[in-house]
Give the backbone structure.
Amino acid sequence: QVQLVESGGGLVQAGGSLRLSCAASGRTFSSFAMGWFRQAPGKDREFVAAIRWSGGSTYYANSVKGRFTISRDNAKNTVHLQMNSLKLEDTAVYYCAADSTRRWPTAPTRSGYDYWGQGTQVTVSS
């Protein structure tokens, strides 16, 4: 079992930056691919970014490529999402997720992940 807890959300002006963190419990964190998803009001949950268990490979949704960076620290059981040049349309609840299947790349879908955090709100204002 893995528990995920997100933090770092908040209110930021367009063009600003935020860094989200996800703390994971359990000793198998380093064997999981990790992902970030987001869900805006009235919309489906969508894939944002993923990182391989070793941290050596990442991939991003086209909408955030070049602005967001996913990283992980396996020694601290954490994964981060650095978000720069934020836009109004980045407003959403952001979720951390873990995939225990050792597939890479992970499926960029909700069903591709086994464990989920509770989410953290990111609001971008004009």
Remarks:
- The two ends are 40 Å apart (CA to CA).
- Residues 66 and 84 are 9 Å apart (CA to CA).
- The first strand starts at residue 4 and ends at 7.
